[in-house]
Amino acid sequence: MPRRLSILAGTGSLVTHVIEAAQRAGDEIQVIALMPQPDRPGVTVLPGDTRDPMSIIRTIRAFRSTHITLAGGVTLGDRAREGLSEFATGSPASAGDAVLSKMSAVVRTMTGARILGAHEVARDLLAPNDRIAGADLTGQQLKSARIALAAARDIGRLDLGQAVVVAGARVVAAEDVGGTDELLHRVARHRQEGRIGDGVGPLILAKAAKPQQPLSVDLPAIGPDTVAKAAEAGISIIAVEAGKTLLLERAAMIEAAEKRGIAILGLKHG
Question: At 207, is the pLDDT very low, low, confident or very high (cuts 50, 70, 90)?
Answer without folding.
Answer: very high
